[in-house]
Amino acid sequence: MKIIASISRTNEILEKFNLRAKKGYGQNFLTDPRIVENIADKADCNDACVIEIGPGIGALTQMLALRAKHVLAYEIDTKLLDVLAYSLEGLDNIEIINEDFLNCDLAKVVKELKAKYGRVVVCANLPYYITTPILFKLFESEQQVDKITVMMQKEVADRFSAKVNTKDYNALSVMSQYLYDVKTIIKVSRNVFNPKPNVDSAVVQFSNHDKIEVNDQNAFFALIKACFKQRRKTLYNNLREYLKDGIVAENILNKCGLTNNTRAQELTLEQFIKLYEVYDYERKSLCED
Ligand code: SAM
Predict the structure, then answer these.
(1) Closest protein CA for atom 11 of ligand 1
(2) Residue 183 Cα, ligand 1 centroid: separation in angstroms?
(3) Which of 152, 212, 226, 250 might form a disulfide with 242, Cβ 3.0–4.6 angstroms?
(4) pLDDT, tens digit, for every residue of 246-276?
(5) Contact call for residues 31 and 6 (beta carbons, < 8 A)
(6) For the chain, what is the total number of helices (H) and then of strands (E)?
(7) pTM of the entire structure?
(8) Atom of ligand 1 at shortest distance to CA of 61?
């Protein structure tokens, strides 16, 4: 079987089907077999079913199918269906679904796949224009997958894995690190794609971890987003705006041992959890009064 992820094979397939990568769908095809094999190896899928988002012409799909029990791939571009049938011919553990991943009933799909295959992981070279919505769909699903290994624009990867007190640390970092252990595992040059994108990329891995769970994740995430709403402002100012009450905001900060000069980017995940718990307590006491 010919490896799809090479410069020559990619050109051959694109020419055969008279295809041009669609910018609007974030199509940048990987053409370096070592990178693709490395991603598939790291996906931890040998005993699992993999969900792939955006198989393109099948470069990563092929490597995943050679390792995993089953691959379920969502591709929005109808034109790629014939291409995939051709490029992946001979591999019988792949199912391609012609659907926008953002519209799929993820919890139902993951539940069924878990019942059939045991473990379910996600691995993809993401369409960059919807990296965050795709990840939040995975994060917020009632049915969690065991591991997510995805390539994205390097700058976005930096935000997901950013540590406290750094320039990239933001609401996205806190929310994703609450849910998962987050690590950048591979750096990828812009030179290994056809067409070549304007940015470098990185593969980020999200692994399930034991966490201190808050009682209402949506309320917790809303509070985190509010705390970072205006990065230049203090935590107090952002909180005051969110709560529409300066006295309550100050009271919450005091109870957390924080001052009116603290900024959101100085708070660790544990401090955000504490902030949420105090906020939740105050909110409920105010409702009772
Ligand atoms: N996996 C291939 C590779 O690594 O060479 C292609 C990756 S390319 C960056 C992103 C792929 O996602 C494209 O094939 C694109 O058509 C597909 N795509 C874009 N938006 C999508 C969506 N909402 N749902 C499913 N697939 C999508």
Answers:
(1) 54
(2) 22
(3) 226
(4) 999 999 999 999 999 999 999 999 999 999 9
(5) yes
(6) 12, 9
(7) 0.93
(8) 1
